[in-house]
Amino acid sequence: MTKLTHLDKYGKAQMVDVSGKPATKREAVAKGSVFMKKDTIRLIQDNKISKGDVLGVARIAGIMAAKKTSELIPMCHPLNISSVNIDFEIDTKKNRIDIESRVKITGQTGVEMEALTAVTAAALTIYDMCKSADKGMIISDIMLIEKKGGKSGTFRR
Amino acid sequence: MTKLTHLDKYGKAQMVDVSGKPATKREAVAKGSVFMKKDTIRLIQDNKISKGDVLGVARIAGIMAAKKTSELIPMCHPLNISSVNIDFEIDTKKNRIDIESRVKITGQTGVEMEALTAVTAAALTIYDMCKSADKGMIISDIMLIEKKGGKSGTFRR
Amino acid sequence: MTKLTHLDKYGKAQMVDVSGKPATKREAVAKGSVFMKKDTIRLIQDNKISKGDVLGVARIAGIMAAKKTSELIPMCHPLNISSVNIDFEIDTKKNRIDIESRVKITGQTGVEMEALTAVTAAALTIYDMCKSADKGMIISDIMLIEKKGGKSGTFRR
Amino acid sequence: MTKLTHLDKYGKAQMVDVSGKPATKREAVAKGSVFMKKDTIRLIQDNKISKGDVLGVARIAGIMAAKKTSELIPMCHPLNISSVNIDFEIDTKKNRIDIESRVKITGQTGVEMEALTAVTAAALTIYDMCKSADKGMIISDIMLIEKKGGKSGTFRR
Amino acid sequence: MTKLTHLDKYGKAQMVDVSGKPATKREAVAKGSVFMKKDTIRLIQDNKISKGDVLGVARIAGIMAAKKTSELIPMCHPLNISSVNIDFEIDTKKNRIDIESRVKITGQTGVEMEALTAVTAAALTIYDMCKSADKGMIISDIMLIEKKGGKSGTFRR
Amino acid sequence: MTKLTHLDKYGKAQMVDVSGKPATKREAVAKGSVFMKKDTIRLIQDNKISKGDVLGVARIAGIMAAKKTSELIPMCHPLNISSVNIDFEIDTKKNRIDIESRVKITGQTGVEMEALTAVTAAALTIYDMCKSADKGMIISDIMLIEKKGGKSGTFRR
Predict the structure, then answer these.
(1) Which is more confident, D145 or F150?
(2) CATH of region C24-156
(3) Cα B121 from Cα B123, distance rounded (Å)
(4) Which end of chain C is flanked by fewer CB atoms within 10 Å, N or C?
């Protein structure tokens, strides 16, 4: 029977005990998208080509947020992540920017929340950087793509 | 001509100067949804009815994250928000949980990023609390619903 | 009828709305004590007289913690406190160190939680600095002594 | 001869060197109490039974504060704690709420400060959630109950 | 007679009381330089021209650090800064990168520490980004250039 | 050919992957100086001898900042440092205070940024504590002195 491990048998929130687990190599990949007006896509592209900064700022926001995951998500373990990478793809047909993060660690628990948090912070930063031009942007399709390492094995969407 | 105010005329990132703006009452409402399996919805509901905690933890995560917005989004001003409220609605037909946040301030700049950050952190926390049962959950449709106060006037989706 | 303002009418946690309140001068004083072995008191005094540091470190910990109050207490408003002072008194008869904090602000809400947090962090730091000599220390009698300013008027213990 | 390890031989504050110590399983239990009026106990209980939230918020505050210990206590090592649990007991005869925390880690140093910080933050949060009804609450009897693992062996109160 | 306002009359550290001061517009400018090998300058320039990121990352680090000043400098007041700008100049003759920050606020106290912290964090980030190529870099000449607003009047270096 | 490891092959910022590296003992020493007026040196000394606090506060600021390095420097890995020591030397001939930090860890990556951050925060704190007497102080000569452990071997200035 499936259960929510962050609740104990009385339904109270807890940080799950991982003290007995071995430290193994783990990796997680997450994705998400920011939908916007065609003109907003163009503004980002224009800045990018000539001098540009929107996606550069969003990348750093995502990397730094991954390190803050356990401060944001109450039951997350503090972790010393080993690497974070964030990539953007501009889809001018669907007027959206796709964000992909990849996080690695050698540790006792997985890094899917770190990967999801990185994508989310990058998306919020794109919104913030562009909101003077477009308040109607939508952040969607934030999901775990892949998770490797640890006892529960590989997850692939 | 629309421009991205977080970039200066050379395209470099900057925190926009609000030192000359008056402190006025402002408010922002944001929304978002977490899509999940029917069984996961049920797990959350079961816990809620008897002793339950998933949404309680997510609410607190959202409120605390709203206070951390300027640490997460690089160009956001630090703000002393006056109130945060977060509401959840469980849609058992569409198998999703809808999240709505409302943030208020008397200040020199708006709180839409705080409202969006609150929704996002609540959504990530729901994912974290339920991921032992359902790794395929999707966070979507994060958007600004309303924004009041300040020079740029009211925005309503 | 008395109610808990950090819970809304449905019992859900909320950060109380202070956006309509005027910014006034406010002040709070809190106290607390750390009880320890006579030898531990002496160790602290010896260090203090010749070169000493335990209470100096505890004072800074208390001041810095006051600034972090809204990160620690979920429903606390972020505040720009105007001043913090922390004083210690060594009671060699009762083998305890008394801690008093005084916090001021010109703002929309009171600073009693900041004063209590300052005392608490100073007490925990004394424990940490001395725990190699005395693990049995007890932190007690943390309480609000005085609160001035704001609509609810003056509170004095 | 007993000495304070957080002071070097000249009495200056230092973070003790643990780089040569092996990583072992460690555990600490701490306790504390919040004394309040009978009516305040009842308010907390009423909320708890029907919909309630005070202790739920305090539990999360305690868990999140345990993760922040090294940011609050100047000489504490940053640690990746493996688990945190917090329990409450309402003592309606003595009009107090007892708080117990249990923290675990596989690491180079103990987690007694994390356990004490968790209890303290939970207590402060109970105070904050109830202070509109009762400003006279007292936080007392914060102490280490048990400590296991590491070179110095087991401590039991 | 000049005195150190962050020490009280007994020499104890304190956060100076600014609760009685009016909120006025204030501004501070600070500078600093990172000295490095000619090759390292060239590496930064090469990256800048084609795709480059070193100074972009350093700018964001500086802006975000300005917001963290009161968490780093124990007696600094928490402040809601109104704007931060950071500029770099590459001096290929002296093999150094000059950093200038400008911080503004409408508040009760000045922002010189915020300006100095912004310069410092930007300099440390340049070091971090380039240290795989040049561990001998030196950060120097960090100083306040200008300070305007507030009772003590204008300071100009 | 030397390259900047914090930029990937496309010039985008990344946190370098250290997940495959073994955890070894590492150590870094950094230095820096604060230049000031003769009178300011004397003020610090006067306070130090009788009751004094400036360097005591700066030491704690440096130790606490070392623990925050990965929050300040965007591409730094979060690390559980094992020890930090900070020493000051007052040079009354050159009217400057020299700061030296030593940081240790058993980990997958070095701690030179932690040592440099500790020196820098201590220097900024000295500036803050003395700025009411001397706004013209200059922070200079911040540099890595030694680095031991890890694959790249020993660096000595």
Answers:
(1) D145
(2) 3.30.70.640
(3) 5
(4) N
Q: Where are the domains of chain A?
A: 24-149
Q: What is the mean pLDDT of chain A?
A: 92
pLDDT in tens, C43-80: 898 876 544 589 999 999 999 999 999 999 999 999 99
User: To which residue do tokens 């989004």 refer?
Assistant: B73
Rounded to 10°, the helix D54-67/B54-67 angle is 60
The pLDDT value recorded for residue B50 is 46
Distance CA D66, CA D61 (A): 9
> Does residue F68 belong to the interface with chain C, where contact is any CB pair within 8 Å?
no
Return the H-helix or E-strand segment holding F138. strand F138-148
List chains adjacent to chain A, taking adjacency as at least 3 C-beta pairs closer than 8 Å.
Answer: B, D, E, F
Q: What digits encode the pLDDT tens for the residues A86-134? A: 999 999 999 999 999 999 999 999 999 999 999 999 999 999 999 999 9
Mean of per-residue pLDDT scores for chain F = 92
Contact C82/E77, CB-based, under 8 Å?
A: yes
D104 close contact with A: CB closer than 8 A = yes
Q: How far apart are CA F45 and CA F52, in angstroms?
A: 8
φ, ψ of residue E99 to 5 degrees: the values are -120, 135
CA distance to partner chain E, nearest, from residue C154 (Å): 18
The pLDDT, as a whole number, for residue E1 is 44
> Closest Cα partner for A30 from B137, E53, F71, B130?
B137
Per-residue CA distances from B145 to B6, B28, B32, B154, E75 (Å)? 22, 8, 10, 11, 40
Q: For testing the chain E interface, which of A47, A51, A60 should be mutated: the one with the most E CBs within 10 Å?
A: A60
Residues of F in contact with D74 (CB under 8 A): 60, 63-64
- Strand blocks (E) in F44-124: 83-91, 96-107
Q: How far apart are CA B45 and CA B53, in angstroms?
A: 10
Mean pLDDT of B42-69: 85
pLDDT in tens, A47-72: 765 445 899 999 999 999 999 999 99
Beta carbons of E14 and C60 less than 8 Å apart: no
- Kindly provide the ipTM of the predicted complex, given to two decimals: 0.95
Scanning the structure block, which residue is given the tokens 């859900």?
C12
Q: Do F105 and D19 touch (CB under 8 A)?
A: yes
Residues of E in contact with A60 (CB under 8 A): 57, 60
> Which residues, in sequence order, are bridge partners of residue F98?
F33, F89
Which pLDDT score, from 0 to 100, does residue F89 have?
95
The region of weakest confidence among C25-39, C125-139, F14-28, F127-141 is F14-28
Closest-CA distance of chain E to residue F12, Å? 6
Could you tell me which of C36, E1, D7 has the C-alpha nearest to residue E9? E1
Residue C138 bridge partners (DSSP):
C35
The count of C-alpha atoms lying within 13 angstroms of the C-alpha of B76, restricted to the half-sphere facing its C-beta, is 30
Report pTM: 0.96
